[in-house]
Design brief:
Elements lengths: L20 H23 L6 H14 L1 H17 L1 H24 L6 H10 L2 H5 L3 H6 L5 H9 L5 H12 L2 H10 L4 H19 L4
Helix pairs in contact: 1-2, 2-3, 2-4, 4-5, 4-9, 4-11, 5-8, 9-10
Length: 208
């Protein structure tokens, strides 16, 4: 029996590309800006390169398999010399995916799963870029609900961010509290957490 050819290590399942064309366009723009800054950082002293390339990868991973496949060549070198940055990026992707999945499960009025993904992704940029989050958000046009959740910990997206953080920390009590606030049960949260972790690992996994 003929076996299917193995998928390349940078393959991103089509189902995991963001379903919204508008959001994919926004992510492509953000990813391209980050990539440009990373390239500039190669020749400009004091401007980091690795974090920007990782941010670009995170954006491209949800926006375009073609762009991510191309960027993976750069990402491969980054991963070998920037383990900490890679871990942070994987955490950011997992949190973003988890929040989006939880939002789709909850289906609460006023809660946009697309904005949940952005909130989860940008909530980790402060560590990746080593810059204050307020300064980062000031340079990027984010939906008001995303800014509200990230800067003040309030608004319709905040409970989902708190739930994601509680899951990451293994805090069962806080997870139960925030799951209830998001109108979700523990089983659903655990299922989505596992799916998000698997997806984030697949996105950044590179074979030798």
């Amino acid at each position: 029996m003929k076996q299917d050819a193995p998928e390349p290590p940078w393959h991103i399942p089509d189902a995991e590309l963001h379903p919204s064309l508008l959001v994919r366009v926004v992510l492509l723009v953000l990813g391209s800006i980050a990539l440009l800054l990373g390239i500039i950082g190669i020749v400009v002293p004091g401007l980091p390169t690795t974090p920007f390339i990782l941010v670009a990868a995170a954006c491209y991973a949800r926006a375009s398999e073609r762009f991510y496949r191309w960027l993976s060549l750069l990402l491969f070198d980054v991963q070998k010399s920037g383990y900490i940055e890679r871990v942070l990026t994987e955490q950011a992707l997992a949190r973003a995916s988890l929040m989006e999945r939880l939002g789709r499960r909850a289906r609460q009025a006023g809660v946009n799963p697309d904005q949940l993904f952005l909130a989860g992704l940008f909530s980790q940029l402060e560590k990746l870029l080593d810059r204050p989050l307020a300064e980062i958000l000031d340079s990027v046009a984010m939906p008001p609900a995303v800014n509200e959740a990230l800067l003040t910990g309030s608004g319709p997206l905040a409970p989902f961010l708190n739930l994601a953080v509680a899951c990451e920390n293994g805090d069962q009590k806080a997870t139960a509290i925030w799951a209830t606030a998001c109108q979700l049960d523990a089983l659903s949260v655990n299922q989505e957490l596992l799916a998000a972790l698997v997806w984030a690992n697949e996105v950044l996994e590179m074979d030798d």
